[in-house]
């Protein structure tokens, strides 16, 4: 073992290592430093590790160092302290010093530096300062080193905590995405990867019924089961409240990902035991295959999108870009629809409701229409579901109600004594659940001076199923205003005779899917006849949708249907055209 160098002895750093032979010349031309003093008291007086270097004969020379510098190097070396200076001078730090001695004006003066190997590794901040040349004119500098090992390790520990889920001990979402990003830096030849997003279904019910501690216990147990489904090289992370992510390697493409999903479902077949209860847990699994141009966050979002598809289908789903594009389109429509409502860019069209026996127009159904300046016409079958999903249906519904009642009032002002017809406005189940519909309708009628019997509100059966008690209170309030209630799309939902018997419904609208097939399908005729018989028994009127020809109109009239609407009579019309259509169909009504 070589003995450590004494402070003050001059050393030369060569490509082969460190020359530890002392030179008799000592340190020359450094003021206030006594070369004969092995302890170099002036360097030792500095509060940090420090050493002096010079450059001569195309070599870097160690001219002196203090005890703190020696201790720093020794703490990062092995037990024999071999290559003590090679750890420092022959590596990055030596180049750092040499560059400065060659060109102190432009060379960097600061360096974050690591010395030694784990676990002895030390972290330092190095800083250089110029000194006067020695007696021979060789450049010299002072290197100071501040040991920041404690701070760096504390930061590393903090980051490790930041990347770990405190409940399950698994990597969290940040660590998960960082691992995916690292795949691009060190790709494994011939091996692809996929991300599985796993969502525990109905997890909130466990928290609500058993408490959050039971929910935490389930998450921990669920994580342990998922661990047993992993293969070597797979990674499991907790990426959200009740959501987990798995990064799997693929040698057989999507087949491997589907096999992983199957293993997970098999593991969940055994109930989980929480306290004294056994709970069957199911999950939705979305799969996204990694491709070279997809970033980690986007890849995980793709898997989450597939989870939504899996919840609807009840089986693992692989991300499909076309479906994602459609989702982005819906999101774009939501943003633009909000702006369109605020700027009143939507319009109402009015489709006539015709008495099937006399041909007279008895009313109009108000239908929202949207013509986008860039996209063109966007149909209600596209933007109404977006409005319901986003909550915009509340604003849209209020706008439609106000515009329809305002139109009736404008038509009445053009005719003495008003006009003998009503307008039907659609009412969403979300409006009934979230909005104060009765107050809104009442204020709108009073504001425009229109009586409640001129208004029919159309609703679907879902408005009743969600909360029958609230639906009953809302319907009774609307009836108190004089408005009529119509059950739209009857026969296509979860029809309940009990609801029809209890709720104050005035009209049943027969869905167009039955009406259009009547002439070709005897079953559709039977369904329509049954609905008409039911309405008569309950004292309700009937309206048939989707009448597109005279034979249908004649058949429905013969069966006893009172009112119809469809392209056979007229398409939805602009307000002025609708009023003109009414006058032509009702010649006894004259303009004031």
From TrEMBL:
<feature type="domain" description="EAL">
    <location>
        <begin position="330"/>
        <end position="586"/>
    </location>
</feature>
<protein>
    <submittedName>
        <fullName>Bifunctional diguanylate cyclase/phosphodiesterase</fullName>
    </submittedName>
</protein>
<dbReference type="InterPro" id="IPR001633">
    <property type="entry name" value="EAL_dom"/>
</dbReference>
<dbReference type="InterPro" id="IPR052155">
    <property type="entry name" value="Biofilm_reg_signaling"/>
</dbReference>
<dbReference type="InterPro" id="IPR000160">
    <property type="entry name" value="GGDEF_dom"/>
</dbReference>
<dbReference type="Pfam" id="PF00990">
    <property type="entry name" value="GGDEF"/>
</dbReference>
<feature type="region of interest" description="Disordered">
    <location>
        <begin position="1"/>
        <end position="20"/>
    </location>
</feature>
<dbReference type="Pfam" id="PF00563">
    <property type="entry name" value="EAL"/>
</dbReference>
<feature type="domain" description="GGDEF">
    <location>
        <begin position="191"/>
        <end position="323"/>
    </location>
</feature>
């Amino acid at each position: 073992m070589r003995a450590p160098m004494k402070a003050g002895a001059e050393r030369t750093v060569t490509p082969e290592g460190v020359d530890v032979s002392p030179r008799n010349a000592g340190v020359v031309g450094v003021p206030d430093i006594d070369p004969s003093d092995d302890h170099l008291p002036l360097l030792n007086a500095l509060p940090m590790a420090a050493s002096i270097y010079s450059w001569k004969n195309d070599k870097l020379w160690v001219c002196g160092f203090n005890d703190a510098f020696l201790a720093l190097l020794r703490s990062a070396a092995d037990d024999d302290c071999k290559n003590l200076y090679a750890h420092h001078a022959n590596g990055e730090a030596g180049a750092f010093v040499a560059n400065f001695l060659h060109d102190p004006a432009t060379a960097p003066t600061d360096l974050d530096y690591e010395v030694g190997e784990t676990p002895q590794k030390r972290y330092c901040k190095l800083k250089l300062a110029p000194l006067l040349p020695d007696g021979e004119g060789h450049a010299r500098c002072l290197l100071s080193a501040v040991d920041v090992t404690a701070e760096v390790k504390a930061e590393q520990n903090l980051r490790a905590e930041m990347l770990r889920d405190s409940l399950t001990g698994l990597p969290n979402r940040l660590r998960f995405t960082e691992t995916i990003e690292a795949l691009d830096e060190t790709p494994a030849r011939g091996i692809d990867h996929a991300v599985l997003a796993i969502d525990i279904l109905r997890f909130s019910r466990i928290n609500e019924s058993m408490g959050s501690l039971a929910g935490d216990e389930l998450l921990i147990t669920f994580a342990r089961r998922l661990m047993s489904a992993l293969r070597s090289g797979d990674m499991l992370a907790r990426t959200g409240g009740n959501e987990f992510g798995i990064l799997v390697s693929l040698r057989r493409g999507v087949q491997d990902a589907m096999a992983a999903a199957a293993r997970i479902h098999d593991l969940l077949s055994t109930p989980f035991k929480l306290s004294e209860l056994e709970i069957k847990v199911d999950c939705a699994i979305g799969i996204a295959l990694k491709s070279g141009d997809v970033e980690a966050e986007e890849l995980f979002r793709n898997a989450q999108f597939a989870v939504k598809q899996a919840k609807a289908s009840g089986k693992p789903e692989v991300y499909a870009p076309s479906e994602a594009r459609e989702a982005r389109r819906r999101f774009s429509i939501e943003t633009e629809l909000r702006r369109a409502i605020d700027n009143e860019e939507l319009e109402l069209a009015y489709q006539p409701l015709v008495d099937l026996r006399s041909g007279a127009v008895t009313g109009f159904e108000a239908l929202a229409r949207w013509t986008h300046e860039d996209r063109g016409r966007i149909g209600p079958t596209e933007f109404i579901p977006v409005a319901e999903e986003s909550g915009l249906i509340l604003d849209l519904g209020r706008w439609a109600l106000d515009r329809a009642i305002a139109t009736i009032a404008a038509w009445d002002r053009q005719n003495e004594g008003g006009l003998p017809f009503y307008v039907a406005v659609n009412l969403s189940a979300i409006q009934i659940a979230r909005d104060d519909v009765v107050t809104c309708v009442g204020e709108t009628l009073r504001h425009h001076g229109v009586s409640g019997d001129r208004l029919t509100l159309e609703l679907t059966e879902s408005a009743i199923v969600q909360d029958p008690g609230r639906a009953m209170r809302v319907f009774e309030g609307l009836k108190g205003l004089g408005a009529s209630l119509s059950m739209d799309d009857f026969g296509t939902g979860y029809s309940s005779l009990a609801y029809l018997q209890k709720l104050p419904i005035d009209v049943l609208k027969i869905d167009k899917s039955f009406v259009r097939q009547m002439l070709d399908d005897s079953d559709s005729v039977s369904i329509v006849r049954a609905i008409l018989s039911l309405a008569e028994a309950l004292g309700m009127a009937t309206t048939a949708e989707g009448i597109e020809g005279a034979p249908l109109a004649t058949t429905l009239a013969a069966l006893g249907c009172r009112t119809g609407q469809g392209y056979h009579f007229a398409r939805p019309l602009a307000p002025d055209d609708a009023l003109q259509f009414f006058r032509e169909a009702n010649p006894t009504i004259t303009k004031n």
